Amino acid sequence: RASRPPPSSLRFLRFWAARRPPPSHVKREPKPATSPAASSLPTAGRPPKPKTPPRAFRNLPSSSTHGPAPVHGRGPRSRRPLPPPPPRPCRRRRLRRGESAGAAAAAARDALLPGVGARPPPGQGEPAQLRRHLPTVNSRLIIENLMKYGLLIRAGFWFSARSLGDWPLLMCCLTLPIFPLAALMTEKWAQRKLIRDHVSILLHIIITTTVLIYPVVVILKCESAVLSGFVLMFIASITWLKLVSFAHTNYDIRVLSQSIEKGATHGSSIDEENIKGPTINSVVYFMLAPTLCYQPSYPRTAFIRKGWVTRQLLKCVVFTGLMGFIIEQYINPIVQNSKHPLKGNFLDAIERVLKLSVPTLYVWLCMFYSFFHLWLNILAELLRFGDREFYKDWWNAKTVEEYWRMWNMPVHKWIVRHIYFPCIRNGLSKGCAILIAFLVSAVFHELCIAVPCHIFKLWAFSGIMLQIPLLFLTKYLQDKFKNTMVGNMIFWFFFSIVGQPMCVLLYYHDVMNRQAQTNG
């Protein structure tokens, strides 16, 4: 009985009600005397031994109309009912290897209440059926596309003769490490008090501004490929964000050190590792680490898992190839057979946008998985970087605000630390701080897309700024309907059905029109 799960409350009462002693008017049979020798005999033919109910149920009123049932050994009920016994302590099951506390609690709940909250066996249920059917359906669509159109991937997709002409962009990328070294020298001079604080701030502004203007000038002067320009602008934007964090954090460290020297702050509660000055090793590690927020030291792992890194690299190659296959096999033919969405027929534009929604969503998911889940974790493992929260479950976002807070955690932490909190400390409202954060994000989206395409029509800027009314709309709908699915559906509608396909069509036709005018 110890191995059998205890019954529920209702079955528990029925269980003991069936085993209660007979009423007082029922004649009891005398209890046969037993001996140690007789206790070892088999029980065949022996009358069943009456079981005494627990103390908590002895004084319950009898179902008979002839009065209460007597308490064994105490005569008729004349004393106050005894209090219920204290609950028996529940023995906690030890966790198995690799099992979480939540999984153990759920298993214990399912064992206590069979049929309530029970999970389907492995390989069954709706998610398992979706995992089985989705690859089958997609494989059939891929085979039909290959049979109808053939393999459309060009030999020059990964490397072409035009890529050799992008050597100015490569040289620009190789010279970007000069700016972190210049920022380090500025901090060294400020730490030794060779220059004043306002001079160091001015030098940091010049360094961070140059690190953005320099790649923009190189890309606009050279007729390079769009992909090469995007990679250069992406690296330059990351460098700018890191240098801003480096300058901001070191300024706060200098202010804190000066307050400790003056006695305004007790230094006993501050770790010396977190207020030491920058070194060449710390700057190099920060520029390579998968984070945008500078600090003198980071949590580190004990060793590098080489086998795990190899598997993740193979996955990264596979998903990058899958992303290229979807672009060449599906997106390019659809876009080439379309018209400008703002100049052609409205119904044709809707049909192209809906047809592009599925492949662009797959490309986005492959890019997200390859970069945020694979590449950043590979980089963190090689550098033994301990803080690996690169994203959260943004696909379950109930509002647009939650999506922007969860899908890119390094950028979110940078914005909160270097834009949002400084705006709040300077007396700005929360709404104004959010507006400034979206404005900075929109500027960098426009730089990373418009500069490589040599087109400045503010499509990307407008798309990011339009997120602000969607932010308040999804928040209002969630508060009004008290349903998390409303905001999630609106988010996915604007994210995968309208936003990305429309952006692809707009920039593609603008790039094609620009190339036609240049060649003409």
UniProtKB/TrEMBL annotation:
Q: What are the record's GO terms for cellular component?
A: chloroplast envelope; endoplasmic reticulum membrane
Principal localization reads endoplasmic reticulum
Q: Name one GO biological process term.
A: triglyceride biosynthetic process
List the Pfam families hit by this protein, alphabetically.
Answer: MBOAT (PF03062)
Report how it sits in the membrane: Multi-pass membrane protein
| Compartment(s) | Endoplasmic reticulum membrane
Q: Where is the composition biased (Low complexity)?
A: 32-44
Q: Which residues cross the membrane?
A: 167-186, 198-220, 226-244, 313-331, 361-383, 432-452, 489-508
Q: Looking at the record's lineage, which domain of life comes first? A: Eukaryota
Q: State the Gene Ontology terms under molecular function.
A: diacylglycerol O-acyltransferase activity
Q: In which pathway does it act?
A: Lipid metabolism; Glycerolipid metabolism; triacylglycerol biosynthesis
User: Which InterPro entries does UniProt cross-reference here?
Assistant: Diacylglycerol_acylTrfase1, MBOAT_fam, Oat_ACAT_DAG_ARE
Region annotated Disordered sits at: 1-108
Name the active site residues: H445
Name the UniProt key words of this record, in alphabetical order. Answer: Acyltransferase, Endoplasmic reticulum, Membrane, Transferase, Transmembrane, Transmembrane helix
Which family does the entry's similarity section mention?
Belongs to the membrane-bound acyltransferase family. Sterol o-acyltransferase subfamily.
Which PANTHER family has this protein been placed in?
DIACYLGLYCEROL O-ACYLTRANSFERASE 1, STEROL O-ACYLTRANSFERASE
Protein's name according to its UniProt entry: O-acyltransferase
Species: Aegilops tauschii subsp. strangulata (Goatgrass)
